[in-house]
Structures are given as structure tokens and as C-alpha cells.
Design a protein that fits this description.
mainly alpha, Globin-like, 76% helix
Length: 136
């Protein structure tokens, strides 16, 4: 990612983070709409899961300039998610739900360059987590 892409991701995420409960609820509603068979993978309270999601995104975005740290985090998450029953195909649904949530939450501020930055970031995140899950 370029420095400009990192700034785009950070600035747009700051907007979402201010409404993190609403953002997480939108994300999970869309995810379960896109791929209902994912729902049973979430055993606990979805609001609590939303808090975890936003916390993990916060950490991941904070480490964008520390590729080694981000990779270590994503490797750990990839192995954990594999253990939860997450399959490689689920990552496409998650990516679609994420981009939809960003587009919905940011409205007209969701410019093409922001979409490109988030899409590239998610592709990298998913790729790293999938690879780690394969090696789990």
C-alpha cells in the first residue's frame, strides 16, 4: 500500500470508528444476508463479536506501517479462524460485506480511491490469513 492509501484507509476508518457499534451491526447484517451459512460460526453475542471486530480492525490499521507486526497478527488470526471453522470461500463474503459497509456508512465520501485502497488492503489481509489457515 502507498502512503496515500494508508492515509485514506485511516481517515475513512476514523469516521466508522466513531460509530463502531452501528458499523459492526451493519457489517454483520450484510454478511449474514450475503452468506447465511456463515451465521452458525458465530456462537456468542453478535454485539460482543462486533466489538472484537472493530478492535481488531483498529489494531490492524494502526500497524499498517509495521508490515512484520501486521503479518504476525494476521497469521495468528488466520490460524484461529481456521479453528473456528472459517473456510477460504468465506473470505469473499467478508470482503463484500466490508466494502458494502464502507460504501453505506461513508456515503458520498466513499470515493473510488478509498474503495481501491480498502479493496487492496482486504485482499492482502485475506491472503495472509488464508495462507496461515492452510498451515494451521
Amino acid at each position: 500500500m502507498t502512503d496515500a492509501d494508508i492515509e485514506r484507509v485511516r481517515e475513512s476508518f476514523a469516521h466508522l470508528h466513531r460509530r463502531k457499534g452501528e458499523t459492526a451491526a451493519l457489517f454483520y447484517a450484510r454478511l449474514f444476508e450475503i452468506d447465511p451459512e456463515i451465521r452458525p460460526l458465530f456462537k456468542g453475542d453478535i454485539a460482543a463479536q462486533g466489538v472484537k471486530l472493530m478492535e481488531m480492525l483498529t489494531v490492524a490499521i494502526a500497524t499498517l506501517r509495521d508490515p512484520g507486526g501486521l503479518t504476525a497478527l494476521l497469521n495468528k488470526l488466520g490460524r484461529e479462524h481456521r479453528g473456528y471453522g472459517v473456510e477460504e470461500r468465506h473470505y469473499d463474503s467478508v470482503g463484500s460485506a466490508l466494502i458494502w459497509t464502507l460504501r453505506t456508512s461513508l456515503g458520498p465520501a466513499f470515493m473510488p480511491e478509498i474503495e481501491r485502497a480498502w479493496t487492496a488492503l482486504y485482499r492482502d489481509i485475506a491472503g495472509t490469513m488464508i495462507a496461515a489457515g492452510r498451515n494451521a
